[in-house]
From TrEMBL:
<comment type="similarity">
    <text>Belongs to the phD/YefM antitoxin family.</text>
</comment>
<feature type="compositionally biased region" description="Polar residues">
    <location>
        <begin position="1"/>
        <end position="15"/>
    </location>
</feature>
<comment type="function">
    <text>Antitoxin component of a type II toxin-antitoxin (TA) system.</text>
</comment>
<dbReference type="InterPro" id="IPR036165">
    <property type="entry name" value="YefM-like_sf"/>
</dbReference>
<feature type="region of interest" description="Disordered">
    <location>
        <begin position="1"/>
        <end position="27"/>
    </location>
</feature>
<dbReference type="InterPro" id="IPR006442">
    <property type="entry name" value="Antitoxin_Phd/YefM"/>
</dbReference>
<dbReference type="Pfam" id="PF02604">
    <property type="entry name" value="PhdYeFM_antitox"/>
</dbReference>
<protein>
    <recommendedName>
        <fullName>Antitoxin</fullName>
    </recommendedName>
</protein>
Length: 84
């Protein structure tokens, strides 16, 4: 697996070459010399995201209804703004 780097300008001028490079590994796209995006082949994206739970699955938290939680009231935290 190789790693290629394209500036934003290079990417815009030769998207075809960036897509070809992504077939053999991730392509880092930089903006003003700093990494800003990564271009992956769709197969690589599927491989990386396979088996990962969705945000909906993570938020569902099965079994949470059995947790007895009664948080204490937060008092004395808020106070009026002071303007000088």
């Amino acid at each position: 697996m190789s790693l290629a780097t394209f500036s934003s300008r290079q990417f815009n001028q030769d998207t075809s070459r960036a897509k070809h490079a992504a077939a053999s590994g991730p392509v880092i796209i930089t903006d003003r010399g700093r990494p800003s995006h990564v271009l992956l082949s769709f197969e690589e994206y599927q491989r990386l995201s396979a088996g990962q739970p969705s945000i909906i699955d993570l938020l569902a938290m099965p079994g949470v209804e059995d947790v007895d939680l009664t948080p204490p009231r937060a008092e004395g935290i808020a106070r009026p703004a002071e303007f000088e």
